[in-house]
Amino acid sequence: MTIAILVAVALGCLVVAPLVLRSTTIFDSVPRVGVALWTALGLLGWLAVIATSLRVALGDRHLALVVALAHFVGHLRDGHPLRGLGFGEVVGLSVAFDLVVVFVGALGVTSWRVGQTRRAQRTVLDLVARRSPHDKVRVLDHPQPTAYYLPGKGGRVVLSTGALAVLDDDELAAIVTHELGHRHGRHGAMLAPLEALSSFVAFLPLARYGPVAVRSYLEMTADDRCRRRGSAPALRRALSKSSIFRPAPAGTFSAVGDVIERRIERLDTNASGLGDYALVVTLAAWAGFAAWFMLAGH
Fold first, then answer.
1. How many angstroms separate the CA atoms of 39 and 278, rounded?
2. What are the sequence ranges of the domains in the chain?
């Protein structure tokens, strides 16, 4: 029964829930909840896959998983890690170990690749772009409008001279405020866990839809920072000009790049004051369920 529950949780988090949630707009008013939910789906789904393999490997299904793991560690310390394990259980242990290695390795490789790309972009920007009066803003001499945030050490908000030409002062201030929202929220790091495995398990709905959904919610979160500072009308005007903006480079957050119509629509409505509380409740519920799931004996 325990293994069946674990398999159901894995399938629900990695396959069913992403298919159901991929086009929903119910979290647009509380985008941080959307980010938390998608992140929790990924973590809990992969935890369930690993726990299924461990449960098969450790054999005694009437013991809590942490207790069975403690027994295995004891056998490992005694020099007999496979004592009492059959062929199927050894295979399960091997699969669990491989999954952990793949997950950690994928996160490390993805983080390294993205870091290299961003470092190269920062180097080029520091050479060819000029500083604006705002310390974190770089201006590129290019006629095509563009505006984006480059995460990483120090972070960079990048505007082109084309963007300066088509946006008025209020719209420019709103765009900068939005982009700095990515910096203050550390959105580059928040997106990394879901993006890490996307290229390795692209066949899973979570890998296909999770990063896209989280990126959209992070854009909305940055919009909310701009809204709190009283710049929602200016940001809405800037977003309405998105069709003339060029795409941002890989590894960046574009102010006008994602779900523009949904973002403009939500800027016309009042922001919910329950976002922080809903986020706490969501995280607490998932954490409680994950703890029960891992510690339950049967």
1. 15
2. 2-20+28-295
